[in-house]
């Protein structure tokens, strides 16, 4: 059983609490910190939490607390982490780890020097559909991964601080791109170095200083490409989709809209549908179990198991730091309109990886380019001569 201090009683704090205390869970939030007394009290009442406080250090230092869960705005993550280091408490932190790479690096170094457990709460690499897809990728069902793409777009976040570039650290690239980057990075291989980033970003709709729309490409050392598509101005709900393309196969995942449950209602008795759903009438796409389908259950199960077993979770502060470093390069590229290098002061993956050859021999003299059965019944091959480079096609049946 884990005894948790939850820092933050807002949107994600409550999703986390629903997961941590869901079903027949033994884990318990025993202390809640919120800035406002009424919010702390309400959360404590809702989750039958013994201790509430408006003093963050008091929640962290509570003698019965053995893990701290940070569910605070981006600009408070670093201060909260430093207090966990001071009190030597295991810490799990929501995304993004920092507002930029430098802040994330400082947090990573602090927890490692303090020798405390650290987990990065990137729920979307724990979503059941992601986990299933990732198993197939790891088993080689898709061959060499060439291109991994992830999209998170919605009509914009729910609290004021997100829209303030100083407090949030960025716009939708930081807020949503952090998910997409970790999803695509995991499919490509977290031990493969992200080399450079090309990004377009713009403020298309909202009256803000940060970007509300962006598309980026991340080049990896093995030649694979990661792609993120993010928006705070998308209409129609929350669009969470991933695509993985490899030499042997393809996976498409739709996590939130059109997931297999379609419903029509005139609006009579209409209620909450799903996160960021823009309507509760007409044709709707409810999500069966958001807490599970977004990965929170699998994420906390792994985090808490790792604390108990003394092992590292699949997502640590190091991963949060790499994601922040990639985002820094994306912001730079959006300004310079050039490919910008990913600056990683700390890199723990492979070095000097080259593009793996996937040439297929057709016969001793030729490589196979393509084989196809046409609609008129012919079986064709397109082949390339190994010495001359000449490309020819042959009908073989
Ligand atoms: N899927 C996800 O992983 C996911 C989803 C949403 C938000 N988040 C992240 O969770 C964090 C919190 O976002 P949220 O959506 O819950 O925000 P929110 O505004 O709904 O809640 C934030 C909470 O922090 C408190 N707070 C605000 N300012 C504070 C301050 N200066 N000091 C201390 N407490 C303060 C608020 O009172 C509130 O309880 C952010 O880092 C965000 O990126 C993650």
TrEMBL record:
GO CC terms: cytoplasm
Pfam families to which the protein is assigned, alphabetical: GFO_IDH_MocA (PF01408), GFO_IDH_MocA_C3 (PF22725)
The entry's keywords: Oxidoreductase
InterPro entries associated with the record: Gfo/Idh/MocA-like_OxRdtase_N (IPR000683), GFO_IDH_MocA-like_dom (IPR055170), NAD(P)-bd_dom_sf (IPR036291)
Residues of the GFO/IDH/MocA-like oxidoreductase domain: 130-251
Gene3D superfamilies reported for this sequence: Dihydrodipicolinate Reductase, domain 2, NAD(P)-binding Rossmann-like Domain
Record family assignment: Belongs to the Gfo/Idh/MocA family.
Protein's UniProt name: Gfo/Idh/MocA family oxidoreductase
